[in-house]
Amino acid sequence: MRGKRARASCSGHSWGGIFIKGIGVSSGIAIGRAFVDWKEHVEIEKEYVDDVEMELDRLNAAVEVAGQEIQDLYKDVASRLGRDEVEMFACHGMMIADPEFIGQIKGRIITESVNAEWAVRSVADKFIHVFEDMDDDYLKSKADDVKDVSARICRLLLHIEGGDMTALQEKSIVVARNFTASEIVQIDRDRVLGFVSQEGTLASHSIIMARNWGVPAVVDVSNILDVVETGDMMIVDGMDGVIILNPDEEIIELYRNKQACLAKFNEKLTDMKMKNTVTKDGIPLKIYANGDNIRDLRSAMEKGISGIGLFRTERLYMDRDRLPTESEQLGVYKKAVLDAGGKTVIFRTLDIGCDKVPGYLNVPDEENPALGYRAIRLSLSRADIFRIQIRALLRASAFGKAKIMFPMISGVEELRLAKGLIDDVKNDLKKEGIPFNPNIEIGVMIEVPSAAIISDLIAREVDFMSIGTNDLIQYTLAVDRMNRNLSHLFSPFHPGVLRLVKTVIDNGREKGVKVSICGEMAGDPLLIPVLVGMGLERFSMNADSILRARWIIAQVERSEMRDVVEQILSLSSVSEVRRFCEERFSSFRQCIPEN
After folding, report:
1. Which helix (H) or strand (E) holds 176?
2. 205 included as an active-site residue
3. Tens digits of per-residue pLDDT, 25-44?
4. pTM score
5. Which domain holds residue 97?
6. Can you count the helices (H) and strands (E) in the chain?
7. Which residue in 91, 205, 354, 494 is the catalytic one?
8. What is the number of alpha carbons within 13 Å of residue 41 lying toward its C-beta?
């Protein structure tokens, strides 16, 4: 069924086209013809079988062929694509050989006497649900690995051919129900103008690849497959998350101009690479990067950052079936510090909880893991694990400017316990004659409202504070940020959130303690000027936001933004604050003017 032709008006004009809103996940504008990939959507039904051994044989054969396919794909990717893609398929190879994943599938076949494909789908769905509920982007993206591998096994069990995206013959905007990494790497990237998917998430591997390729992408576009056909003209606005189907010439011309404008703006951003971060009225600020691996660090360093403001350490614990040893951790931390070339690297200690706990820790399930046994609470209760990490971090501090930061601190008591453990480990290292920096700086994540409210007290105990706005928003507004039904309530523009952020910044300045923000709010074009006006001096963000943030900071005056902050804090609702910011700072997120 074809969608109705919608009309949109702007500046007195009336334009034709079907306008559909999704989620913009890779910025840029694509204009071209659609190529629709009609992958068969297979409904797998549960069937009971008499011959369990035959089902196990079917599964083993499919797993063996899938393993060979993944190995062949890995070799192909390694020869022509980047490290990200190679690492992705190495993970797929490990999953297909994972005794826990495959073992659970076999266990379901045996105990329930069910068909192999249903056992694969049901076990995969359980793993996918766990990963999709996680709030860490890297761990969340693991759901894509499970989807990709399980779909491959099911396809082989059911003798179904894959999608036909490899049939792409000319430059097109590729539209599909969803994309797997395995499918995307087989497309000639020179023939892809943009990606549009009916499903999909911000953290999916396919979207990460689209960003790496510099291809505009929009996901979660409801019912797009009901209204688009191969050959239809499309516009994809990856920044605003807008799809325009069969636009008229006026709209096409408008977006071509916007394309040209963005190209010029990107040239400006390239010029910002090694420039200092300074406001228009000459106040020097600092931009740091977030990351969880050495590759992230190297990529960010090329953009002239002041260091790594958030190095997530939990990846070391999640990519294995046992605890990482002190030596293994030291190897990663030491390399990060050395690669930073004398710049700061702030290591956040283990931040996992019941929604993202590796099985080998044997942590019991909880009804509300977001408010439970996680982050610093888990570390303090498992001092044996925590001490090993602290030892590795302290030893790494002998090689560069390492700092330690505790997550989810809710009060001074927890902080003092964690600092006491560091002091104990320092004493042990002294006795053993192992070098470390005795004056290593210690900081905390402010991501719980109680910590923000008493940040003046916490500031007396630490060298720095970093506001984790993603969780601070979640806990302040009592909104699960992964719940799509509540997504309209999760907003950094909420007056309560902004007042808490300003409270922390003010308390840090008063106590002489450095304050940064490391959540997504730090890279939001509409909020960067507000944070400057609040007096924030340190921003930490994803690498792809760094140059734009530096450019925005160079356009604003702190003195002027102070007055803006006063106006914003007098507003009473999310909609009022957002409308004010959009009207005042729209040029920072739309097509940038020449001046």
Report:
1. strand 172-176
2. yes
3. 888 899 999 998 866 556 78
4. 0.74
5. 52-158
6. 24, 18
7. 205
8. 9
For the cut 70, the answer to whether the pLDDT of residue 399 exceeds it is yes
Helix H segments across 307-411? 315-318, 326-339, 375-381, 383-396
- Clarify whether 159 is annotated catalytic: no
Which of 350, 352, 450 has the alpha carbon at shortest distance from 409?
450
Q: Which residue has the higher pLDDT, 222 or 205?
A: 222
Rounded Cα distance, 86 and 230, in Å: 31
* Confidence (pLDDT) at 184: 72
Decide: helix, strand or coil at residue 325: coil
Joined together, the tokens standing for residue 431 give: 């006795």
Catalytic residue, from 154, 518, 581, 591: name it: 518
What Rg value do the Cα atoms of the chain yield, rounded? 25
Per-residue pLDDT averaged across 237-265, rounded? 90
**In the structure encoding, which two tokens stand for residue 331, read together?**
């190897």
Q: How many domains does the chain have?
A: 3
**Is residue 595 a part of any domain in this protein?**
no
In the numeric block, the tokens 């951003």 are attached to 269
Mean pLDDT comparison of 7-16, 89-98, 502-511, highest-scoring range: 502-511
User: Which of 146-160, 207-221, 304-318 has the highest mean predicted lDDT (pLDDT)?
Assistant: 304-318
Same domain, 583 and 557: yes
Q: Where in 259-382 does DSSP place strands (E)? A: 286-291, 307-312, 344-348
Buried/exposed 498-511: b ≥16 CB within 10 Å, e otherwise: bebbbbbbebbbeb
Cβ–Cβ < 8 Å for 35, 173: yes
**What confidence score (pLDDT) does residue 468 get?**
94
Q: What is the Cα–Cα distance from 430 to 102, expressed in whole angstroms?
A: 46
Please indicate, yes or no, if residue 2 is contained in any of the structural domains. Answer: no
The distance in angstroms from the start CA to the end CA of the chain is 46
- Give the residue from 166, 231, 238, 157 showing the smallest Cα distance to 196: 238
Task: Give the integer Cα–Cα distance in Å for 404 and 246.
Answer: 53
The three-state secondary structure class of 453 is helix
Strand-pair category, 172-176 with 192-197:
parallel
Do 180 and 119 reside in the same domain of the chain?
Answer: no
Beta strands in 333-476 (DSSP E): 344-348, 402-406, 442-446, 464-467
Strand partners of residue 251? none
Find the largest Cα–Cα distance for the chain.
78
Q: How far is CA 294 from CA 248, 340, 485, 490, in A?
A: 47, 10, 36, 31
| Boundary-marking domain end, from 143, 158, 173 | 158
Q: What is the CATH number of the domain that holds 307?
A: 3.20.20.60
pLDDT for residue 61 is more than 60 = yes
